[in-house]
Design goal:
With 167 residues, the chain is mainly β. It is built from two helices and eight strands. It has one domain. Helices cover 10% and strands 26% of the residues.
Length: 167
């Protein structure tokens, strides 16, 4: 069994936008007011409440441009929020739809073909474990099954380093 971490967008990415930075398309984020569920914040991994302001912007959760570096719209609380920390459990945003698409990526940040599958929420962790047990998969993205928007990343939990002993 592979231990998992559900990982939110990095705080540095969120802070960049909160401080007036531009998105993946070099545009300023749009500001909207949430009309209720359906606006998941990718930093705290909770839904943005009705009446709260949010940012909507183009996001590319990859380190560099390349053919598989998908870019799409996501949401962020307009006011700074705390980054999701309960990484070992399914985040709240992954309970708002009946299903999502986990998809595996290799060390070169390329899609591993055949890994994306519409998966019921109760099976996301098990499918993530199955994918991360493969040697050709470095991490998994969880994406919307309806719009393909990035939700969060799933990583393997790294084993603690063993202390060296004198022989």
């Amino acid at each position: 069994m592979t231990a998992l971490r559900f990982v939110a967008m990095p705080s540095a990415d969120a802070e960049h936008l909160w401080n007036g930075g531009r998105d993946a398309y070099d545009r300023l984020p749009d500001t909207m007011v949430s009309d209720g569920p359906g606006h998941p914040c990718r930093h705290c991994l909770e839904n943005i409440d009705e009446g709260e302001e949010l940012l909507v912007f183009a996001y590319r959760p990859f380190p560099e441009l390349q053919p598989y570096a998908e870019t799409g719209p996501i949401f962020l609380h307009k006011q700074p929020c705390r980054r999701y920390a309960a990484e070992e459990i399914l985040p709240p945003v992954l309970t708002t739809s009946p299903d999502f698409i986990p998809r595996g990526y290799n060390q070169d940040n390329r899609i591993v073909y055949g890994t994306g599958a519409v998966t019921l929420i109760g099976e996301i962790a098990a499918y993530g474990e199955k994918l991360l047990a493969r040697s050709d998969i470095a991490y998994v993205h969880v994406r919307s099954a309806r719009n393909n928007c990035f939700q969060c990343r799933i990583d393997k939990v790294k084993a603690p380093a063993l202390a060296e002993t004198d022989a």
